[in-house]
Specification:
- With 470 residues, this protein is an all-alpha fold.
- It has one domain: Amino acid/polyamine transporter I, CATH 1.20.1740.
- Helices cover 66% and strands 2% of the residues.
- The protein has a two-stranded antiparallel ribbon.
- Helix 5 crosses helix 14 and helix 7 packs across helix 13.
- The longest helix has 41 residues.
- The N terminus and C terminus are likely disordered.
Length: 470
């Protein structure tokens, strides 16, 4: 098992400026990228001999299926069902290609991390850029998780419309059902214990449960949609976007950052592969996970948009707070919202794992002691990040807004621009002509689509125009 690339490394031969006596060198512990987060104890009852393939699939799938799934039906409202599903598949294919690039270019130099790969290609500046993007992206993603959990449990108000949360629906409005207290208790009682785990494989069981909860949400949504279609109460959904003027064309690009964010798992691929009992299995694990998640994404988008149509909210969970027109509507609403709130709570530590490692590498990269062996620094970094995420969730009004700006900036760099740049740089001379053509196309598409998306959302924000997605 190895530490993710974004953590610093300590090797005696990589610190020429440090002067050691032979006596000191004889007792110095070498800690490199292949050092386990929790060292193996030979003969111990709890010896860790490597993660299983099934556990790795669950961890990677859970990294992918986060909050993005809740915004996908809203992208169908922007793109139309036919075009939207086609774009989901296209982004999945491009994501698989970029992960394959990372793994391909990691082998010649024996690099076991994304950050190390960026360091090989672009030096220390490249590594720091990757770490900064992971920090920005993951903080944004985790803020979105908290926003959605707050919306589900404590309720929210959007465009003058109040959406009651679970606690308010069950017990009525009270001071203890408010958003600030609910998120604080969730952080202290759920996120702090799960974020304290130092090995990713320790989260494989919770990851499996998280995927199961996402499937519960999907089954209920599909069941309700099929029931209403059979009863003839649903209208035929739009297959293509509504194009009325130039602004409606630009608006199509606002869906791109949400789709990009939905597939960002690159920061955890090396960490999961490094813990595998057989590291060569990482490529089929990536492929299995992407296929599984794409199926879940398509079905969620399809049934969610069919069920709510143009009334689909930016966070579809907000649609599950009123009468659905089916038997046991109230009970089904509660099951859907509870299951997905629990899902996000279980996904949180996987994304936080990479966030903490990259934050430590970015700000404490010169430290001689690895993060997992320095309990004080581990606690300070963890508490600091959780505090930032908690504050962000209380002050950012909409999960869609957070998706737009994190997805259009850091996420697209992590998922597309950086891997494509590594292929173009080709420090080991292994790139094919097809690799470089694909890399150039990905960079051009990513830059164009996201510049337009940022412009569109910034224009809507500053002009205070009503959102068309939420």
């Amino acid at each position: 098992m190895t530490i993710q690339a974004e953590t610093h490394q300590i090797k005696k031969h990589k610190h020429p400026s440090r002067k050691h006596s032979k006596k000191k060198d004889s007792v110095t512990v070498s800690v490199n990228e292949k050092s386990p987060l929790i060292p193996k104890k030979k003969g111990a009852h709890n010896e860790f001999n490597g993660a299983s393939m099934s556990g790795a699939v669950m961890n990677l799938s859970t990294t992918i299926i986060g909050a993005g799934i809740m915004a996908l039906p809203a992208t169908m409202k922007v793109l139309g069902l036919g075009l939207g599903i086609a774009v989901i598949i296209l982004v999945a294919v491009l994501s698989e290609a970029t992960v394959r690039i990372l793994l391909k270019y990691s082998r010649p130099g024996g690099t076991d991390s994304y950050g190390g790969l960026m360091g090989d290609a672009f030096g220390e500046v490249g590594k720091k850029m990757l770490q900064a993007c992971v920090v920005i992206n993951n903080i944004g993603v985790l803020v979105i998780y908290m926003i959605i959990i707050g919306d589900v449990v404590a309720g929210s108000s959007l465009n003058g419309v109040h959406h009651p949360g679970l606690l308010e629906g069950w017990f009525g409005p009270h001071w203890w059902t408010g958003r600030i207290l609910v998120l604080l208790l969730t952080t202290l009682c759920v996120f702090v214990p799960l974020a304290s785990l130092k090995r990713m494989d320790s989260l494989s069981v919770t990851s499996g449960l998280a995927v199961a909860l996402a499937v519960v949400f999907l089954i209920i949504t599909a069941g309700i949609a099929i029931f209403k279609m059979a009863s003839g109460t649903l209208q035929m959904p739009r297959l293509l976007p509504e194009i009325t003027d130039v602004n409606s064309v630009w608006n199509l690009f606002t869906a791109v950052p949400v789709l990009v964010t939905a597939y960002i798992c690159h920061f955890n691929v090396h960490s999961i592969g490094n813990e595998l009992e057989n590291p060569s299995l990482i490529e089929p694990i990536v492929q299995i996970s992407l296929v599984l998640c794409t199926i879940v994404y398509i079905m969620t988008s399809f049934f969610g948009f069919i069920l709510f149509g143009d009334a689909t909210m930016g966070d579809i969970l907000q649609n599950f707070d009123s009468d659905l027109g089916v038997p046991f509507s109230i009970e089904l609403n509660d099951i859907v919202r509870v299951s997905y709130a629990l899902h996000l709570m279980l996904v949180f530590p996987l994304v936080f794992y990479a966030l903490r490692l990259n934050t430590d590498g970015l700000f404490f990269g010169s430290s001689e002691v690895p993060l997992e062996l320095d309990n004080k620094r581990f606690a300070i970094v963890s508490v600091g990040l959780l505090s930032v995420i908690y504050l962000g969730a209380n002050f950012i009004p909409s999960a869609w807004d957070a998706f737009q700006f994190t997805g259009a900036t850091a996420a697209v760099c992590i998922g597309f621009i950086f891997p494509a740049s590594i292929a173009i740089r080709d420090v080991y001379g292994i790139a094919t002509k097809g690799d470089k053509i694909l890399a150039v196309l990905m960079i051009c598409i990513a830059v164009f689509a996201n510049v337009v998306a940022i412009y569109s959302d910034a224009y809507a924000l500053f002009k205070k125009t009503p959102s068309t997605r939420a």
